[in-house]
Task: inverse folding
């Protein structure tokens, strides 16, 4: 089983393992990440192996500063403005891959672009000390619920990796927002921990939706899924279902639910985002075959919450239509 070490005492051990080509589960402000040296093919392969992740699905390369990012990706003026405003933080930029960047091809999944993010906290210090970018998808089995605490990582991946760094519950609770500048267009590839309207205010441009194909991490149709089926926009609870509620007024016949978790009794979308994956996992453990989910507003972070719920509910063998 993996060692579990509190973040305040884990830096040296994590750095040693990463330097040796191992993978380490680390806290970020979004969700826990399964980190490996993005320049080391064996380390990146260990990430895919531990997660059971399809190798056509690219990874985000996490950096410590803009200088490291510029050695990897080619910045246009708008991407640079977004980085200056939102980094460090939960924004990922998809950029043209710079020639000679040193990023292993497994990270980019054969694309001529690279997804870059600068995290906060323990992850930031770890990358700075290592001096190399880290590939770090969410620390969970591929397609399953992302981990927002160390205990969830240990329960899922503890027998596959050497170390879990315990940094407590992640404050954002959703993966990063992913955007790409394509000519004069600003594309939203994945909604996430920064709301689209915040990005549009800084960019001075509207984010376009509906990108097709796998252009970045987080674009597979079925993802973030519990074992239970997900029934979205439920206005009533059927006997034997678990209920994922939102706001002060619950769905009709909520007494039928075998278990209930409320993302935010006050209807606060930021609180709901932070609780989403943890509450989904708790309801999945209830043993109910179906989780009924109350409607979530689409404004602000609600777009990202609804994106995760739609992917969790998607048929496991069918594509999710672009939004």
Result:
């Amino acid at each position: 089983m993996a060692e579990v070490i509190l973040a305040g005492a884990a830096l040296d051990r994590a750095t040693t393992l990463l330097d040796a080509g191992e993978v380490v589960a680390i806290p970020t402000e979004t969700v826990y990440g399964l980190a490996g040296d993005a320049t080391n093919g064996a380390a990146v392969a260990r990430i895919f192996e531990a997660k059971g992740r399809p190798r056509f699905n690219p990874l985000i390369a996490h950096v410590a500063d803009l200088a490291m990012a510029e050695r990897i990706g080619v910045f246009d003026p708008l991407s640079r403005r977004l980085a200056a405003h939102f980094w460090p933080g939960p924004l990922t930029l998809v950029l043209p891959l710079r020639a000679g960047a040193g990023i292993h091809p497994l990270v980019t999944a054969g694309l001529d672009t690279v997804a870059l993010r600068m995290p906060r906290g323990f992850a930031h210090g770890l990358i700075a000390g290592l001096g190399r970018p880290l590939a770090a998808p969410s620390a969970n089995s591929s397609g399953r619920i992302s981990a927002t605490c160390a205990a969830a990582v240990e329960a899922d991946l503890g027998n596959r990796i050497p170390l879990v760094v315990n940094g407590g519950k992640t404050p954002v609770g959703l993966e990063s927002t992913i955007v790409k500048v394509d000519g004069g267009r600003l594309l939203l590839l994945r909604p996430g921990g920064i709301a689209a309207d915040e990005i549009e205010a800084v960019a001075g441009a509207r984010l376009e939706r509906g990108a097709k194909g796998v252009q970045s991490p987080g674009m597979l149709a079925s993802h973030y899924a519990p074992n239970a089926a997900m029934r979205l926009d439920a206005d009533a609870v059927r006997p034997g279902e678990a209920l994922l509620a939102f706001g002060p007024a619950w769905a009709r016949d909520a007494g039928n639910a075998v278990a209930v978790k409320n993302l935010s009794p006050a209807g606060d979308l930021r609180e709901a985002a932070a609780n989403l994956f943890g509450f989904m996992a708790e309801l999945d453990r209830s043993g109910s075959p179906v989780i009924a989910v109350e409607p979530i507003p689409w404004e602000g972070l609600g777009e990202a919450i609804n994106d995760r719920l739609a992917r969790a509910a998607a048929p496991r063998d069918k594509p999710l239509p672009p939004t």
